[in-house]
Each structure stands twice: as structure tokens, then as C-alpha cells.
Amino acid sequence: MMFLAEEIEAYSVLHTEEESELLKSLNRETHANVLSPRMLSGHLQGRLLSMISRMIRPERILEIGTYTGYSALCLCEGLAPQGKLITLDINEELENFTRRFFDKSSFVNHIDYRIGNAIDIIPTLDDSFDLVFIDADKINYKAYYDLCLEKVRRGGFLIADNVLWSGKIIIQENTKIDKDTQALLDFNRAVHEDKRVSNILLPVRDGLMILQKL
Ligand SMILES: C[S@@+](CC[C@H](N)C(=O)[O-])C[C@H]1O[C@@H](n2cnc3c(N)ncnc32)[C@H](O)[C@@H]1O
Q1: Tell me: the pLDDT tens digits for 141-156?
Q2: What are the residue boundaries of the structural domains of the chain, listed by start?
Q3: Which residues is 152 bridged to in the sheet?
Q4: The organism sits in which domain of life (predicted)?
Q5: Confidence label for 92 from pLDDT (cuts 50, 70 and 90)
Q6: 140 CA closest ligand 1 atom index
Q7: What class, spelled out in words, does domain 6-213 have in CATH?
Q8: Looking at ligand 1, which atom is closest to the CA of residue 49?
Q9: How much is the pTM?
Q10: pLDDT tens-digit profile of 189-211?
């Protein structure tokens, strides 16, 4: 499901800051060489993540779901001078591809890229985070939320991608709800009802849940 008319989306992209040459080539090479390139955040959402990060000026960012590193590089654009982004992905097959782009970036010394299961790694992190971006397996969104929120500082932010799940969160009568859709329905409800946070579900691309810890 397209949430915006195609022409409106194209117009928005045309009137949005361009991607850097590095992001353009990462976008291109991901589409040419990597499975499921739709997972990459892309130009418009990437510029939004960069803008949000530049508004916050985070010292510490945690990303769950690196894929080929596009959103990580966008989020790095807002890092404070001594800032650090930790990004986690379970897929070791993408490591060489992704590291090549991190190595070419001016943020290379600010990125801590770890391969492994985020569910195991997050509890081992001692940092307190100014910004968390959840963009991995949907079934674990609520678990990531619970593990991460305690590590977000008061006033810090958490963003979760794909919370509209191509519109599947709108349940038609007599349709069977698959596990990922149910997980996202549970996540969206839990966040919305959580008195510890203030939230907005932004219908950009596949839906971004943005929340601030009170
Ligand atoms: C949608 S992609 C991330 C896209 C990326 N954030 C971007 O915008 O370019 C989801 C990624 O989550 C990773 N992933 C899935 N389950 C995971 C887990 N349990 N721990 C860490 N990463 C996981 C996948 O390997 C995949 O690369």
C-alpha cells in the first residue's frame, strides 16, 4: 500500500535536501547487490532521521537493525563531536559490504558496528542513550522497547520503523492476523498506553513511531 500519492512523494523528494554521494552509492549498490533492498530507509526517511538527529545532537545513539548501514549513516549526521552510534545486526553476511561504506564515511571512528542478536547484546550495553532507532525483526519490537527504554535517558527519544506495516495494522473483518502484524499491533498499543512516554505515530513511508521518555 502506498500511503502518499506517488506524485506527492516524488514532489516531496524533489524538494528535500539531496543525499550525500556516499549515501547515493550505498542506496544504488544495495539495490544492485543485496537481497530485500526495500528494507533500506531511503532518501526521504533518511533525511528525516538525519534532521531529527541534528535536532537532538545525541552523544549516544543505539540502532537495532543495521542492514547495509544507510540509516546509521543518516543518524550519525547529528552526533555530537565526541558522539558514538552503536548499531546491531544479526546478519553476518552483510558485514563486509556494510563495513566498506562505514570505512568510507567521515563517521567511521564514531560507529560501533556489532554482529549478533540484539536481544542478547542490548542487556550488555552500559551506555545511556539520547536516541534509539528500532528497525529489526517485528516480532521482537516490544522486547526491544522494554530493553531499550530503561537505557534511554529522561528526555531522550526512541523511533521505531514500519509500525504501519504496509497498512496491515488496519484489520479487515474475518482476516487472519499474522504474527508480525500482531506484534506491531501490540507494540503500537503498548507505546500509546505507556505513561512513561509521549508519542506520535508519523505516517511517513511505512510509519514511524516517535516517542520521548518523560
Ligand atoms: C529493515 S532492515 C534495517 C534497515 C536499516 N535500518 C536501514 O534503514 O537502512 C532490518 C535488519 O534487522 C536485522 N535483524 C533482524 N533480526 C535481528 C536481531 N534479532 N538482532 C539484530 N538484527 C536483526 C536484519 O538482519 C536486517 O538487516
Answers
A1: 999 999 999 999 999 9
A2: 6-213
A3: 129
A4: Bacteria
A5: very high
A6: 19
A7: alpha beta
A8: 8
A9: 0.97
A10: 999 999 999 999 999 999 999 99
